[in-house]
């Protein structure tokens, strides 16, 4: 029982590591469960620090899983986005505990990294593991891991979404987006979107969705208004504000109250939306409820 209690004390941390490396709820849960099985078999006398041991173990499990996950995603139909974590808007205290590493746009961009780059970046930059400990996970020297993390950091800066960490700015932009969309206000939508905004929709081949990104404020605005006409205006559907991976977003609920679409947004310092990410694949929404 003591073994379980000690493991449970670190479960939330282990899940956080796994989700950031893998990007899916199911895979993260599988990784944590496998870590528990390895913890059960471990020689406790050889474990000096349970948290360090468990963090290294779950990271190794995730690193091994990344290979098969990447293979699945290469055959995925259309755009692949991470499974969203939806909750009520966080309090200021909860907000302080969140970080940019769980943003949908950033997790999606990290799909461009190699498994070793992604694992090194997450473990060192997000969870502050020393390069020596990360090296044990990816099977490289500490010097090589330092290079992996540096290369991953550079790629994130170059290709990651432009975004602000100011929650009020983000919330205002999302509210303006929803208001303009539900009014059918094309100029209002264009105004809140960055001229080079990117729209990504993940239907997984299950739900009809654009299979390639759509770029540009005018094209994205017209796409939004088309969806409003299809989903919202006929009635039966509703829109609710929420937190998506800790940041302001929205969900679309069907007539039964079930979540049918999750919207995540990246917003720049000027309050313009630079990326709109939609998860429509119902297989990625089974864990979502409000």
UniProtKB/TrEMBL annotation:
Supply the SUPFAM superfamilies for this chain: NTF2-like (SSF54427), Sigma2 domain of RNA polymerase sigma factors (SSF88946), Sigma3 and sigma4 domains of RNA polymerase sigma factors (SSF88659)
Q: Write the record's keywords in alphabetical order, separated by commas.
A: Sigma factor, Transcription, Transcription regulation
Which NCBIfam families does the entry link to?
PRK09636.1 (NF007214), sigma70-ECF (TIGR02937), SigX4 (TIGR02957)
What Gene Ontology biological process does one annotation of this record name?
DNA-templated transcription initiation
InterPro entries, sorted? ECF_Sigma-70_Domain, NTF2-like_dom_sf, RNA_pol_sigma-70_dom, RNA_pol_sigma-70_ECF, RNA_pol_sigma70_r2, RNA_pol_sigma70_r4_t2, RNA_pol_sigma_r2, RNA_pol_sigma_r3/r4-like
Coiled-coil annotation reads none
Signal peptide location in the record? none
For this protein, the record's Gene3D superfamilies field holds: 1.10.1740.10, 3.10.450.50, Winged helix-like DNA-binding domain superfamily/Winged helix DNA-binding domain (1.10.10.10)
RNA polymerase sigma factor 70 region 4 type domain mapped to chain residues? 105-155
Q: Name one GO molecular function term.
A: sigma factor activity
PANTHER family membership? ECF RNA POLYMERASE SIGMA FACTOR SIGI-RELATED, SIGMA 19 FACTOR
The record's note on quaternary structure and interaction partners says: Interacts transiently with the RNA polymerase catalytic core formed by RpoA, RpoB, RpoC and RpoZ (2 alpha, 1 beta, 1 beta' and 1 omega subunit) to form the RNA polymerase holoenzyme that can initiate transcription.
| Name of the protein | RNA polymerase sigma-70 factor
Q: Taxonomically, which superkingdom?
A: Bacteria
Give the family per the record. Belongs to the sigma-70 factor family. ECF subfamily.
Instruction: Describe the location of the RNA polymerase sigma-70 region domain by residue ranges.
Output: 7-70
């Amino acid at each position: 029982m003591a073994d379980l209690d000690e493991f449970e004390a670190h479960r939330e941390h282990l899940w956080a590591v796994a989700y950031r490396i893998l990007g899916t709820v199911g895979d993260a849960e599988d990784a944590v469960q496998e870590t528990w099985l390895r913890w059960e078999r471990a020689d406790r006398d050889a474990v000096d620090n349970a948290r360090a041991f468990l963090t290294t173990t779950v990271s190794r499990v995730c690193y091994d899983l990344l290979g098969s996950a990447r293979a699945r995603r290469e055959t995925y139909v259309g755009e692949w986005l991470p499974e969203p974590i939806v909750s009520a808007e966080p309090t200021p205290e909860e907000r302080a505990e969140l970080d940019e590493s769980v943003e949908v746009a950033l997790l999606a961009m990290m799909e461009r990294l190699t498994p070793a780059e992604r694992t090194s970046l997450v473990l060192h930059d997000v969870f502050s593991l020393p390069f020596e400990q990360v090296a044990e996970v990816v099977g490289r020297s500490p010097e090589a891991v330092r290079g992996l993390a540096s290369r991953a950091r550079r790629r994130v800066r170059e290709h990651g979404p432009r975004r602000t960490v100011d929650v009020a700015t983000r919330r205002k932009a999302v509210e303006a987006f929803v208001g303009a969309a539900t009014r059918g206000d094309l100029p209002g939508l264009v105004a809140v979107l960055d001229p080079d905004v990117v729209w990504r929709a993940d239907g997984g081949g299950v739900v009809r969705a654009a299979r390639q990104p759509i770029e540009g404020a005018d094209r994205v605005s017209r796409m939004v208004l088309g969806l409003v006409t299809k989903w919202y205006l006929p009635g039966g559907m509703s829109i609710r504000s929420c937190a998506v991976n800790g940041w302001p977003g929205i969900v679309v609920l069907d007539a039964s109250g079930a979540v049918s679409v999750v919207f995540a947004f990246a917003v720049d310092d000027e309050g313009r939306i630079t990326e709109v990410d939609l998860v429509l694949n119902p297989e990625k929404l089974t864990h979502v409820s409000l």
